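Checklist before submission:
- one chain only
- standard amino acids only
- sequence pasted in full

Submission:
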Amino acid sequence: MNPVPDHYRGVWVRKLLETPDKRDTSTAVHWLQTSLWHADLRVPAPAPGAAAPLGLASQQGFCGVTEVVQTPQGEVCTWQRRLDFQPPRAEVDAGLMVFEAPDRVIETGLHAPYLEVWERLPGSTGRFITLAGLDAAGYDTQERFLVAGRYAMQVRPRRSPWPPGTPAGQSLAEVLTRHPEQTAALLDFEISFGTLEDDLWHIEQSTLPMLRGVHTALTLRQLGATQAHIDQPADARHWQILEWHYADHHP
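Returned file contents:
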């Protein structure tokens, strides 16, 4: 798969969502895009607390690879979700993208009727990093850590599979209503967004309420062409480098 064009890279904040029956300007939506990988987090306002499982289930977020192709309609962006907070979708996640300005893009749905307005955050370009978590044996844990400029997103998928018979397109809230005994396991999926500057990780939004507002020391170290280390007070381990790019220099 080819890297996305440079003008897609960075962190995009959704300013508006319009559908035939909804207009939303309050949900906190962040889309971080590197050369190939993306991570996306959508937390409704007000952010749901730990005591509101169905509220937590209304959150959305996913991570995967992004493909941009030129079609007769225009530039089409497809988000191929490898990890998803919600159950698998029934349709492809793809939109027609029109850049009104370098830092403002309008997305209209190809497989569903919607319009989204996105604006790129200042300070979200210059360095792009994507790391894959490794276990003690060196196998991919499916965890991902993405960096764009001064921003980062950490993704740790749930360990529990979907209950047998979960249909595509069903919401997580519907799954929890049918399987309340699995609530804790199915909500145990972290997508956290925040800033990473001067070896300090400040989490602004997360699918896990206890992580919102947390400040913690975090240092990224490149160990070679394919390996990196993330040092945190309670966790220091190796990660595989999927991308490690600095526009101006290599520290």
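Reviewer check: The mean pLDDT is 95.
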